Structure of Riboflavin biosynthesis protein RibD:
Amino acid sequence: MTVSPQDLRYFRAALALGARELGATAENPAVGALVVKDGVVLGRGWTQAGGRPHAEPLALAQAGEAARGATLYVTLEPCAHHGKTPPCADAIIASGVARVVGGLTDPDPRTAGQGFARLRAAGIDVETDVLPDEGRRAHRGHILRVTENRPMVTLKIARTPDGFAAGAEHDRRLAITGLAANLRTHVLRSLHDAIMVGMGTVLGDDPLMTVRLPGVTRQPLRVVLDTRCDLPPRSRIAAGAGEVKTLVLCGPGADPSRREALEKIGIETAGCAVSEGRIDLRAALEFLARRGLTRVFSEGGPQVGANLIGQGLADEVVLFTGERPLGRTGVEALSEPARQKLDDPACYELVAQGLLGADSYTHYERI
Ligand code: AOF
Ligand code: ZN
């Protein structure tokens, strides 16, 4: 049996279901599952916020007895281990489904092929690796956390059409993009576990780094890369730390009394390795992965962005270009080497572009 166009349609629907809690399931992947028989969808499930229950048992429970003889579409290999929930592979076998159309093998060593193998051993007809590019995109955070000990990183850059992120010193606040692009930014934030920002941006823009969308209440963790622990207690990030979880990563030389002052107002601080006077990005990401984070949204500034791209750590890059030129010199949004790397087809693929009101966007994925 092979995968039919109809299968691909249902598999895409499962991917869309999985995306429902994207940004809220860490440290688990956001998986989607669909139970279908004779062209009728009998059950739909997706990994719940917090990572459990998993997608498959929910879809199978909805289908109930009718799952016997049906096809289960699932965007990632079903788990084979007894973790915080029993193995999904066993639930699938018990449900009596005849066929499983599955995505990529789960790199989690507790599963790593054993989920599919167990289904086959039980006589279920199993297809694997369906739509691998889409599957990798959907589960990139989980895959990178398991295979590279770091979360995936989406880097957002906003620039004027003449290439600046801000005016020169003392003139940094600058509205580059309009409402549509700003709303898109909030949606993107909401699809990540954490929002990461460098101290330059905090001092220059005094951002809030929260999701402000009607109906969205979950706030990603705010992560500030702050070598010397300079975060001003009066900054908007520090002032709001009571309501939104905030983590300051600082270097070993940071003044302990400053760390204490931040801890007192509800900000978590942690020491992190430094390289060339800045928080080492790889070390920072490894720290976040150990905390179970899988998806990080980096918003600044140009220095952090250039380093993420330079070190091969910017997995997706969303570039917003506003309509009003700065018209004078300022802070470049993208360093020359970073721009070259983005334009290099051996390094990045342009996966989407379009307009958002008067602004434009381009979306790249690391090869
Ligand atoms: C699935 N379906 O919907 C998800 C899976 O600690 P546990 O028991 O929740 O297991 C966590 C692991 O399960 C996680 O590392 C990943 O390999 C897998 N996630 N598996 O069958 C799901 N979210
Ligand atoms: Zn599972």
